[in-house]
Amino acid sequence: MTQQLDFSALWPYWPELLAGLWVTVQLTLLATCGGLAIGIVGAAIRSGRPGWLSRLWGAYVELIRNTPFVVQLFFIVFGLPNLGLKMTAGEAALLAMVVNLGAYSTEIIRAGIQVTAKGQWEAGRVLGLSRSQTFMRVVLPPALQRIYPALVSQCIIVMLGSSVVSQVSYEELTFAASLIQSRTFLSFEVYLVTTGIYLLLSIAMRQLMMAAGRKWLGVTA
């Protein structure tokens, strides 16, 4: 006996899926901006002179890269309140994604900086630029050009990882899909549609970020 697929039964639930998609898009946009900003700062610290701040940042990177994202999320949601730091599910989800992307992007950007010719630092000094100005204007742009595709891929991975935040009842796309499945019992149909939405979102995100990279950074890949 074969079961007939019934995608038409999902039509009344499209507003809920679209609402969940919009939450995922907003969460991804904010997490990407915050995570990349942290990554640039971290890469500058890790690429500078060795010191206590560099070692502390290195410990943060190793902690995040070697623990599951879901554990990091649960620690923020359930652990931090014991320290008096209470936040909503949305704030916790955003913080977890920013912290996670910040650690990974730190190492990706640092890899691009490490292969930068020493002469660029010297050129900055000759032009009378401070070390921070040399980093932002001379060293960072070509470093980002080299590692930009890897950075885009990491941002997409974090976006896909946002599905985990449904575990703390944050009403993003996966939460909406699970809620619809519990009402309709159309598991295959619901999650097939959700898979397609994530696939399209990933493709659109990659295309938009690569277009931005070509326009603002001169990325050719």
TrEMBL record:
Entries under Pfam families matching the protein: BPD_transp_1
Cellular component annotations (GO), alphabetically ordered: ATP-binding cassette (ABC) transporter complex
Keywords on record: Amino-acid transport, Cell inner membrane, Cell membrane, Membrane, Transmembrane, Transmembrane helix, Transport
Primary residence: membrane
Sequence intervals crossing the membrane: 20-45, 57-80, 185-205
Recorded superkingdom: Bacteria
Annotated PROSITE patterns: ABC_TM1
Subcellular location: Cell inner membrane; Cell membrane
Topology in the lipid bilayer: Multi-pass membrane protein
Keyword GTP-binding: no
Family annotation (PANTHER family): ABC TRANSPORTER PERMEASE PROTEIN, MEMBRANE COMPONENT OF AMINO ACID ABC TRANSPORTER
Family according to the record: Belongs to the binding-protein-dependent transport system permease family. HisMQ subfamily.
Entry protein name: Amino acid ABC transporter permease
Lineage: Bacteria, Pseudomonadati, Pseudomonadota, Gammaproteobacteria, Enterobacterales
